[in-house]
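Q: Hand in one record:
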Amino acid sequence: MDKTLEYTITDPIYTLAVASRLSETPTHSIRQYIDKGLIIPFKTAKKRHLFSEVDIQKLKSIKKYLKAQGLNIAGINALFSVIPCWAIKSCDLEHRYQCDAYNSMAKPCWMASNKGPNCQNEDCRVCDVYIFPEKFSNPKECIKQMTNH
């Protein structure tokens, strides 16, 4: 009997060392990105971080934003915060006004402390909004995709 392991892009399968190697990002930088909320890896019971393929792609994007585009961490946070999560999640107008992600540009929606009903009990690591920017080569592609529906 052949039992093949199958993983989704959101499964936490990589250790910090492997994520560092795959993304070509120093481990201390990855820890900083976690602290600043740019990535949200899975945390084991022993407080070790595990990373998904989405996290690896996000780390590569962060590196590109820092090096090639000259953004700093605050700029990348602002960039991620303009992702129209309310459109991706189909939030109605009443729920949008109750959500910090809709009302503030300071942080991405996965860092919002007060979330709308559509997101209150959701694991942000596997949310379409967290995954969405990694599907495109640049942030404008995200916006173009959202406006072409």
In short: Strands lie at 42-43, 49-50. The chain is about 45% helix and 5% strand.
